[in-house]
């Protein structure tokens, strides 16, 4: 991966791959391939938007009852953006967002607890 950055609500990763957009698209959308390298068995993946060989946006939710200390499960959105490179490969941009909700709920929960204690 050539660059990686994290904002308050998203992790963004970009890279250039030698494979063309058609092959990368297959790796992102064919269930037997995806199961081997991308989405573990405990993740429920729902396609929200798809534009073949260009864009794939999915909702990822944990299937089991795994919860954080506030009783919430991780529910995020992952967007894969594919664009052809001059050399016939693919520029892949991955945006994984939805991480800010848990800290926000924790901050509000702590504030409520502090106000009750006062």
CATH architecture: 2-Layer Sandwich
Low-confidence stretches: 107-118
Principal-axis shape? globular
Helical content band = 25-40%
What report would you give on this structure?
The chain is of the alpha+beta class and 118 residues long. It has one domain (3-117): 2-Layer Sandwich (Alpha-D-Glucose-1,6-Bisphosphate, Chain A, domain 4). 28% of the residues lie in helices and 40% in strands. It contains 3 helices and 6 strands, in the order ββααββββα. It has a 6-stranded antiparallel β-sheet, covered by helices on one side. Strand 5 and strand 6 (90-97) form a beta hairpin. The protein starts with a strand and ends with a helix.
Question: Any chance you could write out the topology, listing elements then pairs?
Answer:
Layout: E1 3-6, E2 10-17, H1 21-29, H2 31-37, E3 43-51, E4 55-62, E5 75-84, E6 90-97, H3 101-117
Antiparallel strand pairs: 1-2, 2-6, 3-4, 4-5, 5-6
Which structural traits does this protein have?
disordered C terminus; globular; 6-stranded antiparallel β-sheet; 118 residues; Alpha-D-Glucose-1,6-Bisphosphate, Chain A, domain 4; alpha+beta
Summarize the structure.
This protein has one domain (3-117): START domain (Alpha-D-Glucose-1,6-Bisphosphate, Chain A, domain 4), CATH 3.30.530.20. 28% of the residues lie in helices and 40% in strands. The chain is built from 3 helices and 6 strands.
